[in-house]
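ok here's Glycosyl transferase family 1 domain-containing protein:
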Amino acid sequence: TYRFYRIAKKFRPSVLMGLMGITIAPVGKLLGIPSLVFSDTENAKLANFIAYHLCTTYITPNCFERKKWKKNLRYNGYHELTYLHPNYFIPNEKILQEFEIQKNEKFILIRFVSWGASHDIGHHGIIEKMKIKAIEEFSKYGKVLVSSEEKLPLKLDKYKIKGPQEKIHHLIKFATLLYGESATMASEAAILGTYAIFLDNEGRGYTNDQEKRFNLVFNFSETMEDQKKSINKGIEILMNNKAKTEALKKSMELLDKTIDVTKLIVRIVLLINKSILKKN
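and the structure:
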């Protein structure tokens, strides 16, 4: 935070923006610079508390499952639309070759996280035995690719993604199913037209919303019973030959019923800048 303070003090930006806001909100308060904090993670309680009380505007999706506070601006959409809305992201099927996936090949993407964030304390995620079971079961229906923040057991190393990680959104777009522990990737999958299964004891307002409104994400807890249910749900999706077509249709509905979040951000920043110019 101190390093960022020194940079901001020297640069004197018109506005500070960031996710969670644990750094920008205090700096903005100290330097008298407007700060826009974006959050969608309800269980990041300490970060949310600090950021909200120190920022200028606290921006969350409508589906944020917390009481709406005075300076909380809400919008009809999801964070991931800022970079995956079709106005900005153009999927390229040719990139699949870089991940050793053949044209028209059915594949499943699995994501395991490290559970290292402050809001992940007390979580254990999917146990190793069930990770192996999920991969073995899903492999019966297509090629399985695993993206993992932690080192995979030797038995699963052959499933590790081989390809440029920065292009993974193209992979998500053309997958039949995304399964795992990442809320962000589950939301990305929903926006891109891929069914997602997400496991987390506390869940997220946005993945709950994407299940309730669009039936694109399926939420489960980390209990052993739910881990088994999540695998069965994955098998159910993979057995459905129309699954991808259905998911793409539902994602079109999602895009039709949400906003271009980037346009909203630009509008807010321009309004702030206009206000600053008037004062000067």
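+1. The beta strands are 16-19, 35-38, 57-61, 72-75, 107-112, 143-148, 177-180, 195-199, 217-220.
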